[in-house]
Design goal:
mainly beta, two-stranded antiparallel ribbon, 2 helices, about 55% strand
Amino acid sequence: MRLSTFFIGILLLSSKVIYSQGCCSGGSGSPIAGGTSQGVLSERQMEVNANFQYLNTKKFFTGDRRDTAKLFDDLQSKYLYFRLAYGVTKNLTMSVETGYFINKTQIGLRKKDTITSSGIGDLILFPRYTIYSKNTETKRTEITLGLGLKIPLGKYDDSTLVYTDPTTGEKLYTTSTPAVQPSTGAHDFIFYGFFYRGYPEKNFRIFMNALYVKKGFNPLGEKFGDYASVGLFVGQTFFKKLGVTLQIKGEWIGMVRSAPNIDLVAYYGFYKEDTGGRKILIVPQLSYSYKKFTLFALSEFPVYQFVNGSQVGSQYQITAGLTYRFMIKKKAVKEEKTPS
């Protein structure tokens, strides 16, 4: 197995495209917007990948300072993420990815204000192509580019019961905060670059990636902020099976935009000026390989956060998963017998 493909299943595309009521920096969602390192698979190699991601945060910020004022008590989610990838050629890999939210919950300051949702997220089509590859006895170098499309499948306009008329029993609903919607409801374009330098004799590697997600407008006339990230990774393999990787990641999230007839304050209770921001994170990662399986886990630790206005920030995010890779054999071509 090529070293550049070893970490494909280890580093999950962990999203920071977060949007919550009055805040847009703290949550997690579709895992195609964050710091992964993905090269390409070998030709005819298949990858099946499943992950579980848990997020929880109670921290609020104004700018880069902790804020004691809170809009709600807690924001949390549990997310299952699946990826199926295939090495079409030695340079081209195609992956299809999707996920399911077991829950996305915003716990209010009062229990009756708690909002929750669940369901399927988005479908992601993500081809990647290696434009440069050079291998010598002492080092391996690769450059890979990717261009993907995120197609919304899940709910983006789920509603919450806010009032029941005691006389008629008529129920009044309002659109739930975007923080708990399984999808943004918009088509997004994904631009991706990956550089890898490995030293096989020392079982050591250094690599970096850059990712930009260009967001679209959803049917409600909302456009959640574009997303950009840059990650630097260093990794070492011990005992041929244990992988240790450390990532430093920088992230930027743009401000929410809306159509002229959409009042974000009336709909959700937040101003667009209180959306978007930037942060720096440290991400340690461990993996263990056995035959065709790789078990991995990672966690994100924010070391710096700056939010526009006042918002919830990042706190705890843990991801664990399993990857299975195998080769698909070519069908043998039967030779036709020539009549004598």
